[in-house]
Amino acid sequence: MLNKFDFEFSGKPEDVGMKTGATIHTMNGLNMKVKEAKGIPETNGWWEMQHIKKRFTATGAPHRESKESNSIISNL
To answer: Is this prediction's pTM over 0.70?
Structure first.
């Protein structure tokens, strides 16, 4: 449900105040502005390139060793 909304601080992050323990607590609350999301932003292949640079497939799965996958990686 949360991915249907965009959130932004209604004040400055410094106004929140932090107190830590086993969990992180805010001292002054975490006031947010909530708007209905306009959809998933376009990434222009950025995530796929990150996977490929780390020697995974574009979807993030491990490569099966092959000449083709090695040539793709060596061309980066």
So the answer is: no
